[in-house]
Amino acid sequence: MKVLAVYNIKGGVGKTSTAVNLAWYASSQGQRVLLWDLDPQGASTYCLQVKPGKRPDRLLRGKVDAENIVKPTLYDNLDLLPSDFSMRHADLLLHGMKKSQQQLQKILSPLSRDYDLVIMDCPPGFTLLSEAIFHAADMLIVPTLPSVLSLRMLKQVIDFKKEHSIGKLRIRAFLNMVDRRKKLHLHILGQRHRIGKQMMQACIPYASAVEQMAELRQPLPEFNRLAPAAMAYGVLWAEIWDAIPGGLKLPCTPE
Ligand SMILES: Nc1ncnc2c1ncn2[C@@H]1O[C@H](COP(=O)(O)OP(=O)(O)O)[C@@H](O)[C@H]1O
Ligand SMILES: [Mg+2]
């Protein structure tokens, strides 16, 4: 089982949209996917039309096992660990725990037979919960806006990883909300290779189709598979697939 965390210090950069769309692509290819909504805003829970049930924070408190909280979604091979406002104290909870950095790994380990892939939809911030996420994840996927400050933040995350030698964690970023009519966006697009292997080739255009996801409460490719942004998420998924440390097993092909 591989663990991807869609993470950024900032809110509103496309973490939830990305987590939901990647989960859709992976599950539609036959991977058994668990999307873990860790944000108290519960946006991916909402987007997938799942009712969170009673106090999802009990999972983080260690009061119940993940199998008691997990919910099916409307899509084959895609389950959800939901979130709601009760998760707003996640950081406080971790502060009170011994070995808090390992808490997420501990919660996930009994699920390793049931799922091929876990995708975490992370809350914004750089907190104790973020550090626990870094320890549980094989790969951080960082949606990054084409702006100077966003690129600076990405560098901070890359440096943090180096300084704290979080061994297995791989970082991969991509540009989101790219508007090719803007000079600065075009400039950053052209120069993005200078960031290094952490910056992927795939990028997602600014598109109102992405905004419609919350309105229709569906992953984008579910209601508009041929939209340029939907196809861009498909390309992004292919690039991530190639970069997953140790790789993912190939999905079963139907007879
Ligand atoms: N590529 C995009 N084009 C246009 N709007 C986008 C794009 N990606 C995200 N959005 C919109 O930006 C807002 C924040 O996105 P969201 O995925 O919720 O970000 P986060 O989880 O980082 O807060 C939402 O209204 C979403 O529809
Ligand atoms: Mg979000």
TrEMBL record:
SUPFAM superfamilies, per database record: P-loop containing nucleoside triphosphate hydrolases
Residue stretches making up the AAA domain: 1-160
InterPro entries per record: AAA_dom (IPR025669), DNA_Partitioning_ATPase (IPR050678), P-loop_NTPase (IPR027417)
Record-linked Gene3D superfamilies: P-loop containing nucleotide triphosphate hydrolases
Protein name per its UniProtKB record: ATPase, ParA family protein
Taxonomic path: Bacteria, Pseudomonadati, Pseudomonadota, Candidatius Mariprofundia, Mariprofundales
